[in-house]
Amino acid sequence: MQYKRNEYFRYTFGEPCEATFRLIKDTGGDRPTEFSNKGKCQIIDISPNGLRIITELSIVIELLKVIEVNFIIDETPLSMIGELVWSKKNVNGFEYGVRLSEDQNNEQKIVNDLKVRSRKEMELKTKNVSRFDKK
User: Fold this and answer.
1) Per the database record, which ranges form the PilZ domain (predicted)?
2) Whose CA is closest to 44, among 6, 87, 14, 7?
3) How far is the C-alpha of 110 from the C-alpha of 43, rounded, in Å?
4) CB-based contacts of 10, cutoff 8 Å, min separation 6
5) 0.90 cut: is pTM over it?
6) What is the DSSP letter of 130?
């Protein structure tokens, strides 16, 4: 499956969205899936099918590809499972591209929460602009 970084809809947060993540190791067979401890990250941008995160932690994505990311876009806590598809070191830590598992319900939750968040941000900007216009 090809990674679609330039897909049609991607929302970039003005202020990165706080999140946590856990790496998932599928041990296969009769043993249950193992999870790492939670780590902190920030979501830089998001789409219904993926997100870009940044964290201080270095992850060897060739060995651990499956990740669970927990975050809140508006008010509803979301927990998504995805696959780490690329990594890049930068001055603030490490950036990772996450392809989210295909799930119509989760895709719709992301779109709906982004619409509400965007509406709230626009209302706040409008209030701030009109407040300055009155002075």
Assistant:
1) 39-111
2) 14
3) 13
4) 45, 46, 47
5) no
6) H
State the Cα torsion 87-93-99-100 to the nearest 10°.
160
Q: Which two tokens stand for residue 67?
A: 């990740």
CA 107 to chain CA centroid, nearest Å: 12
Q: Is 47 within 8 Å of 73 (Cβ atoms)?
A: no
Phi, then psi, of 37 in degrees rounded to 5: -70, 160
Q: What are the structural domains of the chain?
A: 11-133 (2.40.10.220)
Token pair listed for 75: 């008010």
Contacts of 27 (CB under 8 A, 6+ apart): 33, 34
